[in-house]
Amino acid sequence: MHRFTSLISVPDLVARQSDENLVMLDASWYLPTDGRDPGAEYLARHIPGAHFFDIDAVSDKTNSCPHMLPTGSIFSEQMRAFGIGADTEVVIYDSKGVFSAPRAWWMFRVFGHRSVKVLNGGLPAWLAAERSTTAEKSPVAVPAKPFSAQYCREWVADKNDVAMHLAQDSARVVDARSASRFAGAEAEPRPGVRPGHMPGARNLHYAKMTTGEPAVLAPEGDLRALFDAVGIDHSTPVVTTCGSGISACLLALALTEVHPGPVAVYDGSWAEWGADPNCPVERA
């Protein structure tokens, strides 16, 4: 049986929960149309010891695109505020199962921290196992060695990278949005963003990466079949993209389980590409 390297199960987390070198983060995030406040939900109920990782706050505030990567210094400062050091083991979860936690996982990988896992099934799996939650403030540890970001460029793609890959067919660009958004049959949720997709991109909806209720990562064989269907193999570099860089990270996490190695995420994703009149758009 394949054992996921970037995920941890509820029983394994329970066994490790009291480890002094482990820090848990709640990286729940929702679309504006969901009408939910992840910060308020965290304050009302979270896994004991967890801190709230605000994806929108730990970002580049100077960029007009949503929750773009911050600088390494900003990321390091925030991680130190969580008590995360250079050698800390980090476990990230979200309230949908496996949805937004991979975004925080990817950010850690971008900034050189390898000891990071996503809780498979997230908070729903924790609750289904009848584990306790709390509204109490989590203590902050003092790590022996402070966190210092080391930027790993191979995990990141920008607009120019994507344009080059599409023009030269030098990487498989995979879009995690729904089939209807990819085809341009559905309006984009952000104003000023055109419907459609990048010419040459492939579509693989992020929801296919998970299975069951609570949602957990699909079995390795199922993931491999899904990626094979869009032309991904060991020899092909991959760039994942989506609406704003959230669900693309779920594809990236799943891909690393099937084809080990860095997977570049287009951070600006469709929020950037679709809003730029100089970027080509294809529909249907």
Provide the residue-averaged pLDDT: 96
Q: How many domain modules?
A: 2
Structural class: alpha/beta
Please outline the major beta sheet: 5 strands, parallel
CATH superfamily (homologous) name of the largest domain: Rhodanese-like domain
Give me the count of strands.
12
Low-confidence stretches are none
Radius of gyration: 18 Å
Number of contiguous helices: 10
The CATH class of the largest domain turns out to be Alpha Beta
Distance between the termini: 39 Å
Neighbour order of strands in the largest sheet = 1-5-4-2-3
Which fold name fills CATH's third level, the topology of the largest domain? Oxidized Rhodanese, domain 1
User: Share of helix among residues?
Assistant: 25-40%
Q: In CATH terms, what is the architecture of the largest domain?
A: 3-Layer(aba) Sandwich
What's the shape?
Answer: globular
Question: What letter string, H or E per element, gives the SSE order?
Answer: EHEHEHEHEHEHEHEEEHEHEH
* Binned strand content: 5-15%
Structure write-up:
It is built from 10 helices and 12 strands. The chain is globular, with a radius of gyration of 18 Å. The longest helix is centred in the C-terminal third of the chain and has 12 residues, at 247-258. With 284 residues, it is α/β, with parallel strands linked by helices. It has a 5-stranded parallel sheet with strand order 1-5-4-2-3. Strands 6-12-11-7-8 form a 5-stranded parallel sheet. The protein starts with 6 loop residues before the first strand and ends in an 11-residue tail after the last helix. The protein has helices at residues 10-16, 38-44, 72-81, 101-110, 122-128, 159-168, 179-183, 220-229, 247-258, 269-273; strands spanning 7-8, 22-26, 51-52, 89-93, 116-119, 156-157, 172-175, 202-203, 210-211, 216-217, 238-241, 264-266. α4 crosses α9 and α8 crosses α9. 29% of the residues lie in helices and 13% in strands. The chain folds into 2 domains: 7-151, Rhodanese-like domain (Oxidized Rhodanese, domain 1, 3-Layer(aba) Sandwich); 154-273, Rhodanese-like domain (Oxidized Rhodanese, domain 1).
